[in-house]
Amino acid sequence: MNQIVNKYIKELDSIYIKYEKTITRLTNMEIDILTIRSIKLKKEDIYIGNISEIYEIGNTIGVKVKKQFLGKTIKAILNHGFISFKLKKNLIEVNKRIKPKYKCEIKLNIKEKIEQFKIKTRLIVLRFKKEIKIKLGVKFKIKNELEIIRRKVSLQVKELSKRL
């Protein structure tokens, strides 16, 4: 596993979206976020379409998107431990059984490179070049370049590399 992790650290372009099996309170979230090169999905997701690579690290699955599709809007649905992953215009689809309870929708509007992205327990620390908006029941704005957003759900985002 360390070899796999090191491989993606060297590539300096992988970001993890890692979450626990139980999502209890998150209902609807829209994130306008900057350039993301790799999206991590739950294990055993099936996938079709223009995905260049799929790999597993620990209890997460990563889908490597072909470079020509970067910059598109990615829509991911987290649903009680399952995920549905779809790239705009049906270029990529990853689907799995979806349970109706605890539906969570994440929109990633890919614009620019993330300057810094790190995680603390239940506190997500974001540092961006531009202001973004996060909707989690209520709209939040990231002021200036740094803001800490408190979350009641165990959704973790982790960056393997120090810089993208």
Give an account of the 3D structure:
The chain has 164 residues and is mainly beta. The protein has one domain. The protein is built from one helix and 16 strands. It has one helix spanning 2-11; strands at 15-19, 29-31, 38-42, 46-49, 51-57, 60-65, 73-79, 82-87, 92-95, 103-109, 116-120, 123-127, 133-136, 138-141, 146-150, 155-159. The longest helix is centred in the first third of the chain and has 10 residues, at 2-11. The radius of gyration is 15 Å and the shape is globular. Mean pLDDT is 34; it is low at 1-164.
Low-pLDDT residue intervals, each spanning 5 or more residues: 1-164
Number of helical stretches of at least 4 residues: 1
Class from secondary-structure proportions: mainly beta
Strand content: over 45%
Describe the secondary-structure layout:
Blueprint: H1 2-11, E1 15-19, E2 29-31, E3 38-42, E4 46-49, E5 51-57, E6 60-65, E7 73-79, E8 82-87, E9 92-95, E10 103-109, E11 116-120, E12 123-127, E13 133-136, E14 138-141, E15 146-150, E16 155-159
Antiparallel strand pairs: 1-16, 2-13, 3-6, 4-9, 5-6, 7-8, 7-10, 8-9, 11-12, 12-15, 13-14
